[in-house]
Amino acid sequence: MAISTDPSFTVDESSASGLTHPGLALTVIAAAQLMVVLDATIVNIALPHIHRALHFSATGLSWVLNAYTLVFGGLLLLGGRMGDLFGRRRMFCLAVLLFAAASLAGGFAQDKGWLLAMRALQGVGGAVASPTALSLVATTFAEGPARNRAFGVYAAVSGAGAAMGLILGGILVDFLSWRWVLFVNAPIGVAIALAAPRLIPHGRRRDVGALDIPGALTSTGGMAALVYGFIHAATKGWASQVTVESFAGAAILLIGFLMIEATSDRPLMPLRLFRNRTRVGSYLVMLILGAAVFAMFYFLTQYIQQVKGFTPLEAGFCFLPISVCIVTTAQIASRVIAKIGPQPLILTGTTLAGFGLLVLSSLTPASSYPLHVLPGIILIGLGMGCVFVPITVTAVSGVSDEDSGIASAMLNVGQQVGGTLGLSALVTVFSHAAQSAATHPGNRRGAALVDHVFSHGADAAYRAGAVFALVGLVAALVFVRQDQVPQ
After folding, report:
1. What are 409-448's pLDDT values in tens digits?
2. CA terminus-to-terminus distance, the chain
3. Which of 95, 226, 233, 434 could disulfide-link to 250, CB 3.0 to 4.6 Å?
4. Residues 248, 246: Cα–Cα separation, whole Å
5. What is the pLDDT of residues 225-279, one digit of tens each?
6. What pLDDT is stored for residue 144 in this prediction?
7. Matching fold, domains 1-210 and 274-487
8. What is the structure's pLDDT at 206?
9. Residues 284 and 479: beta-carbon distance below 8 Å
10. If DSSP codes are grouped into helix, strand and coil, which group holds residue 181?
11. What is the Cα–Cα distance from 86 to 71, expressed in whole angstroms?
12. What is the pLDDT of residue 103?
């Protein structure tokens, strides 16, 4: 994807200086975000090979994904604030290097424990790199057309990265080995860390003693418990004792966190961020759309490979239209948002995504990719491209320089928790529908039954995802205001 080097990109003089190559600076920031986002799906393609190589159990294999998700989600708020306090460029470089080192070490794993430990360490690096990358965009580029175009690139990378991860994962696994889905991050991370100090302004120093320790502990513990509850619910059910205890612990810790933030002189998450209705709306839409759309990759990847019989590489390229649609639409959205405002784009995007999920809900084992799958994923890609730019702009525009990291982290929290919540909820819907189809009298037998059961369950999950998209549409109507610029 080409990154603009247009000289009309301008820097916010209040927060940064010395930006001589804005297009290259944006390339470095976007590359780091792409590396983090890719990791969420690139490992998916390699799971069967990891299963055989390291002798994971069927249930234990999910922790190759969950170890990363749990740590990443738990540390996002803290990671965003650390950039505000200790220097965004410094924390950005350290986080990218940590992510790269953990990836390299994980690629050499000879046993399950080592791989899971390195995946968790990747989560630490990602939890700091992702929000600091977005806050670097917000504080480096001047508010207005230049920042909107930069957000367009960032949003395109964030949205298209999941689909691109499937493609790259298929190529690496088919032509090299599963280990290269981890090795590939090392040279990219080193290159980003070397380029960042030369291209990204240093910014202003902060009071390193200002970290809200009680807030950091309660938010990290609460977010980790919340994410773990969703992960556990997806496999063991919502009524499981561990699931209930996780959610109860998360509620206690997060309520305690809010009480601490309300009384702290230097809060980790300033509650003033939520005084603005439009900003709250952007966080809600990100949460809901994440729940609606990101679980789609989980079901559709399995449908394309297991039901339609595509290879990992073929399956990866099946998702290429999503990336193309997101990148293209995000660039258009970044240029028209100043003229039409955020709400029309968000309403259009959630509507398109909802219709795309409804199209996918009619899939059967006999459905073809070009006639039945492709229209659905094109609609979803167009919808995501429409939504990501205005959500990003409204979430961080008007935020003071000192709060840009935590405002960025909140957007990441919405996407991460939304995706995890959506997966666990839609897996539950899938399981009930699949069980009903499997026990229906007069069903076919053998492989035909397996394909029918999976398709029936996935169709129910897509319909539930479309309902989530409808809720996102309502949230945008209620909270996102055309005449209100976040302050």
Report:
1. 777 777 777 777 777 778 778 877 887 777 765 555 555 6
2. 32
3. 226
4. 5
5. 887 787 777 667 778 888 899 889 989 998 998 888 888 777 777 777 788 788 8
6. 66
7. yes
8. 53
9. yes
10. helix
11. 21
12. 92
Structure tokens at 188: 């990219």
Looking at residue 367, the DSSP 8-state letter turns out to be: -
Task: Report the b/e string of 423-454 with b at 16+ CB within 10 A.
Answer: bbbbbbbbbebbeebeeeeeeeeeeeebbbbb
Look at residue 200 and give its three-state secondary structure.
Answer: coil
Q: Is the distance from CB of 320 to CB of 380 less than 8 angstroms?
A: no
Asked if 89 and 137 touch (Cβ cutoff 8 Å), the reply is: no
Contact 308, 369 (CB under 8 A): yes
State the Rg of the chain over Cα.
21
For 50, 61, 306, 460, 483, the CA distances from 56, given in Å and listed in that order, are 8, 5, 20, 30, 54
| Confidence at residue 331, expressed as pLDDT on a 0 to 100 scale | 81
Between CA 315 and CA 320 the distance in angstroms is: 9
Domain residue spans in the chain?
Answer: 1-210, 212-267, 274-487
pLDDT of residue 442: 54
pTM of the model: 0.76
Alpha-carbon distance of 279 to 271, in angstroms, equals 12
Euclidean distance between CA atoms 78 and 268, whole angstroms: 7
Cα-based angle 381, 386, 389 (whole degrees, multiple of 5): 120
Cα–Cα dist 476/278, whole Å: 9
CATH code that applies to domain 274-487: 1.20.1250.20
Secondary structure (3-state) at 346: helix
Between vectors from CA 404 to CA 401 and to CA 409, what angle results, nearest 5°? Answer: 165
HSE toward the beta carbon, residue 453, CA cutoff 13 A? 19
CA distance 162 to 164: 5
Q: Within 10 A of 285 (CB to CB), how many other CB atoms are there?
A: 31
Tokens of 449: 């039954």
What is residue 3's predicted lDDT score, i.e. its pLDDT? 41
273, HSE (Cβ side, Cα atoms, 13 Å): 29
Distance CA 404, CA 255 (A): 23
Segments of the chain scoring below 70 in pLDDT: 1-20, 57-62, 142-144, 147, 159-160, 162-163, 202-211, 234-235, 295, 399-405, 440-448, 482-487
Given this structure, which CATH class describes domain 1-210? mainly alpha
* CA gap 19, 14 in Å, rounded: 13
- Find, among 354, 301, 309, 348, the residue nearest to 329 by Cα: 348
Q: At what angle do helices 63-86 and 213-236 cross, to 10 degrees?
A: 160
